[in-house]
Amino acid sequence: MALRVAELEEKINKLTNLLSADQLHHEEPNQPDATRNDQSLPTPPLSIGLDPRPLPPAGNVDQRCKPGIDEAAALQADIKSIFRTELPPVVEERLFSDFRTTFNQYFPYVVIPPQATTAAIRKEKPFLFRTCVSAACHTDPVIQKQVAEELLRYIGERMLIRSEKSLDILQGLLVFISW
Fold first, then answer.
1. How distant is the alpha carbon of residue 65 from its chain centre?
2. How does pLDDT run across 61-100, given as a tens digit for each residue?
3. In whole angstroms, what is the distance from residue 127 CA to residue 35 CA?
4. Which of 94, 98, 106, 127 is most buried, with most CB under 10 Å away?
């Protein structure tokens, strides 16, 4: 037991000496590069990238994230202005069903609840819905190309111009990139 304690103390002393030597190394900026120890890299300060402002209380987050009635209507109007390729609802339903049954195995990162309806997904996650329909529309390359161009326009508008971040956009991008 005493031998084990002595070994541990020796290791602690070695580590302490290494840390002291490393601190001296960082305090000597004029030292030539050839004599520096390449194994010890400087570590960035912990505060880089951290926002010093406090986070809002948890109760306010839900209220801010839920769009109001006017915002939801504006979102739907905006989506209709970008997605101009109109597919009949029956065709959209069939393509989305095909995506769920056939293609979903290739996109395991997109979980669509079995009880979710096509209308609900179209309303709640419009970008994901359009990418799923587009991926399943492989039999009609003309329509698929038109929808792909609209999806790119949507990405440019939402992500690049408005800096929006959402699970809908993330999952839709994953499907879009993968197909």
1. 17
2. 444 444 555 655 555 555 555 555 677 888 889 999 999 9
3. 56
4. 127
Q: What is the DSSP string of the chain?
A: -HHHHHHHHHHHHHHHHHHHHHHHHHH-TTS-GGGS-TT-PPPPPTTTT---SPPPPHHHHHHHHS--HHHHHHHHHHHHHH------HHHHHHHHHHIIIIIGGG-TT----TT--HHHHHHH-HHHHHHHHHHH-TT-HHHHHHHHHHHHHHHIIIIIIS----HHHHHHHHHHHH-
Do the Cβ atoms of 137 and 144 come closer than 8 Å?
yes
pTM for this structure? 0.53
> How many CA atoms are closer than 13 Å to the CA of 134, on its beta-carbon side?
26
